[in-house]
Here is the input.
Amino acid sequence: MLKEGRLLMDTTATSNFDPPNFRTLTPLPVLLEGYRGVLVALYAPSAFYARCYRSLLQWKACKPQKPPAIPLRPLLGIIVRSIVHQGILSSYRKAYWKFLLRLVARWPLDPPKFSLGFAMLLSGHHFIRYARSLVVRLESELDKSRIQRGSADLTWRSAVCSSASITQ
Here is the structure.
């Protein structure tokens, strides 16, 4: 990429989700739009919890696997906070309740599976919110690239128009 002049030396990427530090062969807006679409599809609450449920259907605990022993008081606090933040206040509460009800209906007497399912239920809070924040950042990057592309198009058009007027 350095030989091709595609490596961008002046970028300060701070995470895996920043735009690449090189000029892509595929236009960057196309890549960012595709990445945005993948995040939206994978971390849509209903899709996320459906994958968790399918995973639980397939997962089998090994004999030595036991759910962690959490004292009752902290566990109740976790459950209450989850219900409030995810089950009542969140925008994805419908998917949350659907997964929780399926979990309680299917595996109430299977502690390893129930524990893993509950951990998945809680992890949705992180993954769904994080993916949404990345989508916002990607949309900001897309807006920047559209503005840059628009000014480049204007420069190109004005150059074409001025050369056309010179030849006439």
